[in-house]
Amino acid sequence: MGTLSGNKIAGGNPSRGRVDNDYYATNNYSTKAILEVEDIIYPALEPACGEGHISKLLVGEVYSTDLIYRKYGCGDMDFLSYEYIEKLGYMVYKNSKTQKDYRENTNETLGFIKQKKVYENKYINTVITNPPFNLFQEFVEKALMLANKKVIMFGKLQALEGIKRATFLETTPLKTVYVFKKRQQPLRNGSEIDPLTNKKWASSTMAFAWFIWEIGYTGEPVIKWI
Ligand SMILES: C[S@@+](CC[C@H](N)C(=O)[O-])C[C@H]1O[C@@H](n2cnc3c(N)ncnc32)[C@H](O)[C@@H]1O
Question: pTM for the complete prediction?
Answer without folding.
Answer: 0.88
